[in-house]
Amino acid sequence: MLRPLLAFAALALAAAPALAGSYSAKPAVPASGRIIARDITWNCGTESCEGSTLESRPVVLCQSLAKRAGRIESFVADGRAFTAAELDKCNASARGQKASALAAQ
Known about the structure:
By secondary structure, the protein is of the alpha+beta class. It is built from 4 helices and 6 strands, in the order H-E-E-E-E-H-E-E-H-H. The relative contact order is 0.17.
C-alpha cells in the first residue's frame, strides 16, 4: 500500500521543475553574473538573462529585473515575447527611470 504512494510522490516531485516557467530578457546595458530578483534568480551573460520560476506573473518578474539591471529591451515569458505596451509597463520600474523622468519635467 505504501509503495504506490511513494512512487506517486516521487513522480510528482520529478515533474515539479517541468511546471516552472522559463523567462528570457535582454537588458539595454549588458549584465553579467547572477541577479537575484523577486521570486527568480537570473543568470546573465553578455547577450541576455535567463531564469525559471514557478511564479506566474511575468510583468512583476520583468519589473523586478528592471529595478536591478536597468531598462529591458526584450522580455520573453514561456516563448511569448512582451508587446511594446508590456515592455513600457516593465520599464517604468527600471533603475534610473525616476531620475530621467524628473529631469524631463
